[in-house]
Amino acid sequence: MKEDIRNKLQNVLEDRVFHKTEDCISYGYDGSFGQHIPDFVVQVQSTEEVQSVVRIANEFNMPITPRGASTSLSGGPLPVEKGIIMDFSQWDHYLEIFPEDLLIKASPGVITGDIHKLADEHNLMYAPDPSSSSICTIGGNLAENAGGPRGVKYGVTKDYVLGLEVVTAQGEVIQTGGNTVKNVTGYDLTKLIVGSEGTLGVITEATLRLIPKPLATKTAMILFDDLYTAGKSISTILTSGVRPSKMEILDNNALNRVEDYAKLDLPREASAILLVEVDGDPTILDKELQTIKEALLQIGVDKVDIAENKEDEDKLWQVRKLVSPAIVESGYTKISEDVTLPLSKIPDMFKKIDEIKQKHDLNIVVFGHAGDGNLHPTLNTNMRDQNEVERVEDAVEEIFSYAVQLGGTLSGEHGIGTMKRAFMTKELGESGVQFQKAIKTALDPNNLLNPGKIFPIAGEERLVLRNE
């Protein structure tokens, strides 16, 4: 059967079909854990090619897993049931801006950073800004509903998608949304597809909304003597009358990892720092930062350093960008989690993580998008130490459980994939999971589109990091 499938795929894609193990092995991983080698890899470059591959998959009942740049941290592009990897990374040749309509159109393999650059050339902005924007694809961002630091003021990917071209599980092409900000013709299928992790349809083109680029920005670094006050300050700032464009937090552990890595002369003694950016009319930015300073004084926080120029501002944001590479550099396997909480509950989560760290004797780094409650508790783990791995699994489960208990969610921007599917029922309940499964079954009755993702697997009740 594999030879028949290969022949049919090659008739469509010629030399852009791979089947040898040595060619497919690098397509079996992402930024999370585990490796699953596909039977085939196809590099699609048109909607018609996607349709043909989907129809061949239906003929042979073979799973399809869409894949962009594989920066996912949740297992989204892992071919857990083998089958066909549909690689979009080579389909990056269509990127067109329509500045008078404030929109941009892109094929799924376009790098998100290139969208930012093109918008910037026209004094416009594509607001979603995931940390991996220089390497991640827009198709992957759409599949996972990626976020980023600007989420606190501007929202996430789904808030900037006007329309999509999608190939269905049956190989048909549909259009969702359109070219207008307002569109209430029927169900909002655009938002249904965005964040569905390739399980409901295959995105082949996106129409994205642009906004005017802010005239100026200004950044402050706030230092804290204790982590609880740092958490409390987030709500204090957001209720001060100012809406920051970015609010990023680093705990002492994260701060020192970056200092060890880059030698930036950071305040090692601080329990945490908060980076706050305001944007807009340059004549009001100093006033907004002064409002923030006055609000913080009410809770006893007075260590606020404001960048004097663009160069100093860039240096401050470099601190945030270096957290992940600094953690990787410090050793062992990096496990990045992604819980989101009501703002008032952030201090409680900080306290809980500290308890979990002590209880399980683990080194946990906390950083994240403070302004929208999206924290990234991150661990370094020696995957060869079985006892340590088990402690990490226990710790992660406790973090997830507490996030849900506080009224939060399992994922703010990384998606569910394989990493968090065991916890879906904990957040949604059995009826909630079944409701979502019903949508999946209706649109993909043969379960060919990215199977093994999002939904709990029988017998899998917790995160498992080890290959057993």
TrEMBL record:
Cofactor: FAD
FAD-binding PCMH-type domain mapped to chain residues: 33-213
Source taxon at top rank: Bacteria
Keywords for the protein's UniProt record, in alphabetical order: FAD, Flavoprotein, Oxidoreductase
Stored InterPro entries: FAD-bd_oxidored_4_C, FAD-bd_PCMH, FAD-bd_PCMH-like_sf, FAD-bd_PCMH_sub2, FAD-linked_Oxase-like_C, FAD-linked_OxidoTrans_Type4, Oxid_FAD_bind_N, Vanillyl_alc_oxidase_C-sub2
Molecular-function GO terms, alphabetical: FAD binding; oxidoreductase activity
SUPFAM superfamilies from the UniProt entry: FAD-binding/transporter-associated domain-like (SSF56176), FAD-linked oxidases, C-terminal domain (SSF55103)
Family under the similarity heading: Belongs to the FAD-binding oxidoreductase/transferase type 4 family.
Name used for this protein in its record: Glycolate oxidase
